[in-house]
Automatic annotation (TrEMBL):
The lineage of its organism: Eukaryota, Metazoa, Chordata, Craniata, Vertebrata. Disulfide bonds join C184-C211. CDD domains: EGF_CA (cd00054), LamG (cd00110). InterPro entries: ConA-like_dom_sf (IPR013320), EGF (IPR000742), Laminin_G (IPR001791), Neurexin-related_CASP (IPR050372). Keywords: Disulfide bond, EGF-like domain, Membrane, Repeat, Signal, Transmembrane, Transmembrane helix. Transmembrane segments: none annotated. Belongs to the neurexin family. Residues 212-250 form the EGF-like domain. It comes from Rhinopomastus cyanomelas (Common scimitarbill). This is CNTP2 protein. Residues 47-211, 279-465 form the Laminin G domain.
Length: 486
């Protein structure tokens, strides 16, 4: 039987690297040959164990690495430190550990005193993603590499001891009362031999075979864009990139607005030079800190919930350093209007939802997604509706400046309808407001670094009055056949 295919992922190749260590010895020579390859699956590559308590470990026979040691493995964790593996002698030892969230250490002693090599990463290593560690030691030198970071090398002394004499068992995980490793280790190879972590984990308390984690099974419970984060005995939901709160990111964060009250979220950091600002917030899931005034958006996502009995009013307005703007209005009739002005046309492009009275005191949700010229609008639980900007319209939202809730307080000329609907202002409830990665109400009510972007007039009172949008508006007395006069 024959099979064929293309292997495009380097680490799936049968032979991805040939490394010859301990070279430059006078008179030494070596020969390496690769014969017919037998396909045996990727069990060794994915042979993994999960360490779920800080005192759990696996033990193996003493590591035989007297004159040369070649160790490699992958790890992933959300812990900031922990011992990967350790083997002890009377005074000699060899150890690999995560010293901090950005540091991996390789240390050993062959009788000349402890030697430590540290690789420092510019990025967090406890991000619950796989990272590769390669450590080597021979009579000439020792080296350590993490992922594709530069290799750290330490030359061996020209005189002194060269043999690593170990007597204890090899411990993978906690050893000697130290802070054990919490997370997953896979594909652990020591001098060319893959240790069977899975088989040993089956009979060891505190260690589980494999590395599926909790998130593949339970991550769906992190709702509304919440991120599942692996914990040692479970998981948690990171809601920081959402407009929601609570253990599963399902609790609305909302507030009641009295007449004349407003909230402004500035997209730039206070006191930061405009020239030095780096756009991150509106385009990616990076920290919601800054956005440059020359930034142009070709797509955005907006979602929020509201309830009011007053019309007309401005629910939300996004200004810019140019004439561009975006607004969501309640018209005098109580109907909803989405208003885009991106340039290229004489008048703003309007999407009118005329068939419903949205100022009926009931909660309503609004979801607007734009990608270039295409706009998708969903109101409450009704099916999404697609719209398109006019052919003459620009598709770039140039230089976003600030987001307003409740009322627009902007210096300079604003659209005539915005000005007309802006007085006396919105009265009612707004909740779960999110524009791309920005959640202005949550930033105001749950102080974080982003709270410095917030400016408020009036007292912002937290409320969940916009939490439950209706699919169908309530029947009037005239059309309700079950209505009984009191």
């Amino acid at each position: 039987r024959k099979d064929a295919g293309m292997l495009s992922y380097r680490e799936h190749l049968p032979v991805s690297q040939v490394v010859v260590g301990d070279v430059d010895r006078p008179g030494s020579e070596a020969k390496v040959s690769v014969g017919p390859l037998r396909c045996q699956g990727d069990r060794n590559y994915w042979n993994a164990a999960s360490f779920v308590t800080s005192s759990s470990y696996l033990h193996f026979s003493t590591f035989q690495g007297e004159t040369s040691a070649d160790i490699s493995f992958y790890f992933k964790t959300s812990a900031s430190d922990g011992v990967f593996l350790e083997n002890l002698g009377n005074t000699d030892f060899i150890k690999l550990e995560l010293k901090s969230a950005t540091e991996v250490s390789f240390s050993f002693d062959v009788g000349n005193g402890p030697v430590e090599i540290v690789v420092r990463s510019p990025n967090q290593l406890n991000d619950d993603q796989w990272h590769r560690v390669t450590a080597e030691r021979n009579v000439k030198q020792a080296s350590l590499q993490v992922d594709q970071l530069p290799m750290e090398v330490r030359k061996a002394p020209t005189e002194g001891h060269t043999r690593l004499e170990l007597y204890s068992q090899l411990y993978v995980g906690a050893a000697g009362g130290q802070q054990g490793f919490l997370g997953c280790i896979r594909s652990l190879r020591m001098n060319g031999v893959t240790l069977d972590l899975e088989e040993r984990a089956k009979v060891t308390l505190g260690v589980k075979p494999g590395c599926s984690g909790h998130c593949p099974s339970y991550g769906m419970y992190c709702a509304n864009g919440g991120k599942c984060v692996e914990k040692y005995n479970g998981y948690s939901c990171d809601c920081s990139r959402t407009a929601y709160d609570g253990p599963f990111c399902i609790k609305d964060v909302g507030a009641f607005f009295e007449e004349g009250m407003w909230l402004r979220y500035d997209f730039h950091s206070p006191g930061t030079s405009m020239k030095d600002l780096v756009s991150r917030t509106l385009l990616s899931s990076a920290d919601p800190e800054t956005t440059a005034p020359d930034l142009s958006l070709s797509k955005e996502e907006l979602s929020f919930s509201f309830s009011t009995t007053k019309s007309p009013c401005v629910l939300l307005y996004i200004s810019s350093y140019t004439p561009d703007f975006m607004a969501v209005l309640v018209k005098p009739s109580g109907s909803l209007q989405i208003r885009y002005s991106l340039g290229g046309t004489r008048e703003p492009y309007n999407i009118d939802i005329d068939h419903r009275n949205m100022a009926n005191g009931q909660p309503h949700t609004v979801n607007v997604t734009r990608n270039g010229r295409s706009i998708v609008l969903q109101i409450d639980h009704y099916p999404p509706t697609s719209y398109s900007l006019p052919a003459a319209s620009d598709i770039e939202f140039n230089s976003p400046k600030a987001l307003f809730l409740g009322k627009v307080i902007e210096i300079g000329k604003i659209d005539q309808d915005i000005y007309k609907y802006n007085t006396p202002g919105f009265t009612g409830c707004l909740s779960r407001v999110q524009f791309n990665q920005i959640a202005p109400l949550k930033a105001a009510l749950r102080p974080t670094n982003a709270s410095s972007h917030i400016h408020i007039k009036g007292e912002l009172v937290e409320s969940n009055c916009g939490a439950s949008p209706l699919t169908i508006p309530p029947m009037s007395v005239a059309t309700d056949p079950w209505h009984l006069d009191s």
